[in-house]
Design brief:
It is a single chain. The chain has 277 residues and is α/β, with parallel strands linked by helices. The protein has a single domain, classed as Rossmann fold. The protein has ten helices and ten strands. Strand 4 (114-119), helix 6 and strand 5 form a beta-alpha-beta unit. Bound molecules: S-adenosylmethionine (SAM). S-adenosylmethionine binds at residues 73, 77, 96-99, 101-102, 118-121, 124, 146-148, 170, 172, 189-190, 195-196.
């Protein structure tokens, strides 16, 4: 784990923060940028400061490498920093890890013994390898592969040594062909379920999660019903829901995204506890 995880503020750690940023900038290729993970990405960051959760983990401000053009992580991802507080997980899997913002947040907040990320896009995994190296994260395995395939699931299970205590996901929200689709395949694979939808992601998660483990999924609020039906179909139960209001001007503070915490049906208390973030 990098020496600056969990540290923050001015003082002796400033140097290590500067070195992290330097390493990331050096690893940043043409057509890429460094996306800091900071609370202000979501609203003005009040959801973090209101909770008095202390200093923001400094390593996250270093952020991740992302394409200048293409899919970049969305504001709702940063909310996971608050939600994960107090949770313990030694083994974590990020399904469809993309540029790795969820993986990095889990690495910094939970410091797991083993972390595995998988994505169908080789380019994303290659980029994330550079991000992980710049953060000097150990115990991270990154795989290119289709999470629907049993052999990929078996490889992930082998790497985490059985089941994962925490499985993270941000599956594509939209059905194939919905709305104005990007002409870039890399974007469509992130936004539309061309190679896997929420049911596929939850099905893989169910096979990968340990007994008593949790699955955390971020999803579009208007499509909550799709996630609930898919969860039921694959044998998962929703334990908790956190909703994130729409903070765009004129949108009236309506639910925009949510984080769902799921477990295997019958293993954990269900009965969805719904909270506003
Ligand atoms: C909405 S993006 C999320 C990316 C990243 N986790 C984030 O939160 O910014 C969905 C990701 O799932 C990946 N994906 C889609 N279908 C997949 C599949 N069958 N196997 C593995 N990854 C897949 C996409 O390539 C994309 O990176």
């Amino acid at each position: 784990m990098t020496d600056i995880s969990g540290s923050s503020g001015p003082g002796p750690n400033q140097d290590s923060r500067d070195r992290l940023v330097e390493r990331l900038e050096k690893a940043c290729g043409a057509g890429e940028l460094r996306s800091p993970i900071v609370p202000e990405r979501l609203g003005r960051g009040h959801w973090w400061s209101d909770r008095k959760l202390g200093e923001w983990p400094a390593a996250l401000t270093g952020g991740v490498l992302e394409p200048k053009e293409g899919y970049r992580f969305r504001p709702e991802n940063v909310a996971m920093v608050a939600l994960l507080q107090g949770l313990e997980a030694d083994t974590v899997v990020d399904l469809g890890c993309g540029s790795g913002s969820l993986l990095l947040i889990a690495a910094v907040v939970l410091t797991p013994r083993r972390l595995v990320g998988v994505d169908i896009q080789a380019e994303s995994i290659e980029r994330l390898k550079r991000t992980v190296a710049a953060h000097q994260l150990e115990h991270v395995d990154l795989l290119v592969g289709d999470l629907r395939r049993p052999e990929i699931q078996a490889e992930i299970a082998l790497l985490v040594g059985g089941g994962a205590e925490l499985v993270l996901m941000n599956p594509p929200y939209f059905p194939v062909g919905w709305g104005r689709t990007s002409r870039h395949e890399a974007v469509r694979l992130s936004t539309h379920g061309e190679q896997g939808d929420v049911r596929d992601f939850l099905g893989a998660a169910k096979r990968l999660v340990s007994k008593g483990g949790q699955i955390w999924a971020v999803y579009d609020a208007w499509r909550l019903a799709e996630l609930l039906v898919a969860a039921g179909e694959v044998g998962l139960a929703v334990q908790r829901l956190f909703w994130i209001p729409d903070q765009r001007p004129g949108k009236g503070d309506r639910p925009y995204r949510f984080w769902a915490v799921l477990g295997r049906r019958g293993e954990a208390e269900s009965g969805a506890f719904i909270e506003r973030l």
